[in-house]
Fold:
Amino acid sequence: MGSEIKIRPIRDTDWPDAWTMMKPVIRAGETYPYARDMTDAEARKMWLDIPQASYVAADETGILLGTYYIKPNQPTLGAHVANCGYIVAENARGRGVASRMCEHSQEEAIRLGYRAMQYNLVVKTNEASVYLWKKMGFTIVGTLPGAFLHPVRGYVDAFVMYKELVK
Structure:
């Protein structure tokens, strides 16, 4: 993997590689509430068609390292708060990809007119993400007891995390 991370809007031609990167995360069922047997078409709709925008992180050779989407967290009167989902390729974890995508998503959120960002279901057992989001300035504003059915640990808590972007 190269040392420079470039983030750009996802292109149709990126989807096969993005899905290859996303599929193991979805199949594992440890961090996202999506159906573990989600199809390529369902994932594409969820990641590309529903969000306002979707992006990929790539190294300088064009190899995809991660992907994220941004969308309003709620309709109309709650649409000033962004929601994002992030996935990093297994072989790119621990190399700053998620941090860079989170930084980029906050910049994009502000550019798109959002005032804050909220993560609705950060699984407590996903300690790396909880740590990173706190490091990136997000606060746990609520705990949802047993809100996530982990495939190994059973019902585990999830956090709602929030960060004001514009004061």
About this structure: The first strand starts at residue 6 and ends at 9. The CA atoms of residues 118 and 162 lie 4 Å apart. The domain at 6-164 is CATH 3.40.630.30 (Aminopeptidase). The radius of gyration is 15 Å.
